[in-house]
Amino acid sequence: MLNLISRWALSLFLFGAFSFNAIAAQLSVGNEAFTEQRLLAELTKQYLNSQGHEITSKGDMFDKNLRRSIVSGRVDIAWFYTGSALRDFNQIETAMTPVQAYELVKKLDKSHGILWLDMSETNNSYGIAVRREDAEKYGINNMSELDRLMLENSHWKLATDSSFYSRKDGLKPLMKHYAHKMSHGNLKIMKPDETYDALKSGRVDIAMVYATDGRIKAYDLVVLEDDKHFFPGYILAPVVSATLPAEEQAQVTALLNNLSGVLTTESMIEMNGRVDLEQKSVREVASHFLKANKLL
Question: What gap in Å lies between CA 114 and CA 96, rounded to an integer?
C-alpha cells in the first residue's frame, strides 16, 4: 500500500514538473521584420533561456499583427517603441518629452492588455536621409529644405518600407506636415533593409531610415534635421502580454528590465552594423552582447 501511495505521489510530482515545463515552453517572443527587432528577439530568447525560461520565437511580423498578438496572448513578449504606440495606435500627437511619452503610453496600453516594462536608453527615431554628396551639392540640411530640392529635381525617387508608408506617424502625414509634394510614381516601397542600399547605389535619391542603423554612418548618408519636430521620441522598451499569469509576469519582468537596462542607442547601432555590414549572424551578435554585459 505504501509503495502504491509513493508511486502515486511520484507520478503527481512528475506530472506537475512536466506541466510547468510545458507552460514555460509556451512563452514566446515576437518581432517586426528588420534587423534591430530580430536582434531584440534573439537577445530575449538567449537571455531568458539561460535563466531557465524556455522561449520560442514567432519570427517576423507586421507591427499591427505583433501588437494584436500581444493583446490576444498569441505572443507573450515583444519590444515596442513609444512614438509608434502613441501616434499609430493611440492617436496621440501632442508634443512631450521622452519620459512623458513613456509614462503616457504605459498607462494607455495597460487598458489594452499590454504591459510596458522599463524603458531603455535607445531612441530609434525615423529619419529621412540623402547621400552626402547631394546634401552638399544642393545645400540641404533639414526637412523644410527638402521641398525646394524635390521641386528642382522632379525625377527624384524616395524609398520607404510598407510600414512607414501606411503608418499614421509615417510618410503621408510627414509629407503633409512639411507641405511636400511627390508623385506616387516616384515612391518606391521596399523591404526595410533595402532602402539603404537603394540610396547608396543611386536607385533612389531619398530614403526613410532608422536612427540606430549602422549603415547611415557606413554609407556616409545625411539624415535631414526634423526642424518642424514631426517625429516624437521612439524610446525602446520591452512589453509583455497581460494574459501571462502573475507569477510568470513577475519573473519575466525582472529579467527583461535587466536586459533593457543595458541597451543604448550606441549599442544598438553597433549590433545592427555587425549584422548588416559585417554579415555576422543575429545569433552570434546577440550572444556576444549578452556575454560582454555579463548576462550570459
Answer: 21
CB contact at 8 A, 66 and 78: yes
| Radius of gyration, alpha carbons of the chain | 22
Contacts of 58 (CB under 8 A, 6+ apart): 28, 29, 30, 31, 69, 74, 75
Distance CA 190, CA 162 (A): 7
C-alpha cell at 258: 535587466
Convert 131-165 into a string of H (helix), E (strand) and C (coil).
EHHHHHHHCCCEHHHHHHHHHHCCCCCEEEEHHHH
Residue 78, H or E segment: strand 77-81
Statement: the pTM of the whole predicted model exceeds 0.90: no
| Ramachandran bin of 220, using left for φ above 0, alpha for ψ from -120 to 50, beta for the remaining angles | left
pLDDT digits (tens, 9 = 90+) for 59-88: 999 999 999 999 999 999 999 999 999 988
Q: How many contiguous H segments (helices) and E segments (strands) does the chain have?
A: 14, 10
CB 266, CB 260: distance < 8 Å: no
**Is pLDDT at 285 greater than 60 in this prediction?**
yes
Domains of the chain: 2-123+235-292 (3.40.190.10), 126-223 (3.40.190.120)
Distance of alpha carbon 271 from alpha carbon 269, whole angstroms:
6
**Beta bridge mates, 237:** 80
Tell me how far CA of residue 296 lies from CA of 50, 129, 290, 293, in angstroms. 7, 37, 5, 8
The amino acid occupying position 95 is A
> Among candidates 102, 201, 121, which has minimal Cα distance to 157?
201
The C-alpha atoms of residue 91 and residue 115 are separated, in whole angstroms, by 18
